[in-house]
Amino acid sequence: MQRLFLPACLLVAACALPFVLPSYMVFQLTMVITYALALLGLNLLTGFNGQISLGHGAFFALGAYTTAILMTHAGWPYWATLPAAALLGGTLGALFGLPALKLDGVYLALATFALGVATPQLLKYKGLESWTGGSQGLVLDKPEAPWGLPLDGDQWLYFFCLGVALLLFAVAHNLLRGAVGLSLVAVRDHPIAAQAMGVDNARVKTITFGISALYTSVAGGLSALVVQFVAPDSFTVFLSITLLVGAVVGGLSSLSGAVYGAIFIQFVPGFAEKVSQAAPWAVYGAILLVLMLVWPTGAAGGVARLRNLVLQRSNP
Predict the structure, then answer these.
(1) Looking at per-residue confidence, does 276 or 42 come out higher?
(2) Number of folded domains in the chain?
(3) Is residue 24 part of a domain?
(4) What is the mean pLDDT of residues 226-241?
(5) Rg, C-alpha atoms of the chain
């Protein structure tokens, strides 16, 4: 029961926030949820399986455009677009993972980097402009609360994204606790020993890439609903780098690290701009450097050490 007490308190607090915060802050917290899902997908690939990706912004864009196109051109309800984004992202992620099996380390990073660089240009391609909107992008309608719930659009989207995130975090938690999680870590740490013990390394890597892309695509679909707009310039390679930075800052090989990293992605750039409008990225870089020096294993590792220190002092 004690292990469930803190998560239960956090969940109650999360459910109360939309009713006490202004709409813009609710929007920001909803974006934190979407980024947390994207970072969870990247963490499964990089943190738990050891495959480096600099192109996950492409899968984020894939999910966002799947949602936008299905809602705009096909008239799908917003909630039905997420399974489609998940299926498409997971399938293409697994297919991309097949040739990526021959690459490792920086070579895999460069291959995924190429994917991230090419994505905005593909979205601007004239042959797809009738679907993607080209450089102008697509505008989406904000979903309204169903069943007569006394919630405005921002509050409903917050709870909708929170529900999707809780479900996918629970699925990831169960996967990592079982044989799948052991296989992921074994392939990352000791691939030869894992193969000798009967683990199909190629299959594990391919499936992991697919699951990672699935999570990131769902996150992209949710972000499209929240922002109500998609355009190629929103999904440059900088997004892919930002996701990797968030995963590392939050803490690799940690589910909670995805949340910490999402908070960093959403709030630190704005804070840096408030500190110095002339050189915001210098402030951003300084904050990033300090965090890495203070918490070399990420925020999740730092919080865990602080918690252990408090427990040691309270129970001498």
Answers:
(1) 42
(2) 1
(3) yes
(4) 93
(5) 20
**Domain presence at residue 176:** yes
Q: Range of 48's domain? A: 2-237
Residues 56-106 pLDDT 10s = 999 999 999 999 999 999 999 999 999 999 999 999 999 888 877 777 778
Paired with 230 in beta bridges are 138
Q: Which residues pair with 139 in a beta bridge?
A: 229
pLDDT of residue 306: 81
Strand partners, 138: 230
Q: Does position 171 have pLDDT exceeding 60, yes or no?
A: yes
Query: CA angle at residue 139 from 246 to 237, to 5 degrees?
Result: 30
Mean pLDDT of 253-265: 93
Cα-flanking dihedrals φ and ψ of residue 185, to 5°?
-70, -40
Length of the chain: 316
Residue 143 phi/psi, 5-degree rounding, is -65, 145
Which of these, 82, 95, 2, 36, lies nearest to 249 by C-alpha position? 36
- Residue 135 carries which DSSP code? G
Contacts of 194 (CB under 8 A, 6+ apart): 183, 186, 187, 201
Task: Give 95-153 pLDDT, tens digit per residue.
Answer: 888 877 777 778 888 888 999 999 999 999 888 898 999 989 999 988 888 888 888 88
Q: Is residue 196 part of a domain?
A: yes
Cβ contact 261:246 at 8 Å: yes
Q: 302 in helix, strand or coil?
A: helix
Of 288, 283, 275, 246, the residue nearest 263 (C-alpha)? 246
**Which phi and psi (to 5°) does residue 139 adopt?**
-105, 135
Q: Residue 117 is which amino acid?
A: V
How far is 153 from 156, CA to CA, in rounded Å?
A: 5
Q: What CA–CA distance (Å, rounded) separates 20 from 7?
A: 20
Written as six digits, the tokens of 53 are 């990706």
Q: Are 138 and 72 in contact (CB under 8 A)?
A: yes
**Is residue 261 a part of any domain in this protein?**
no
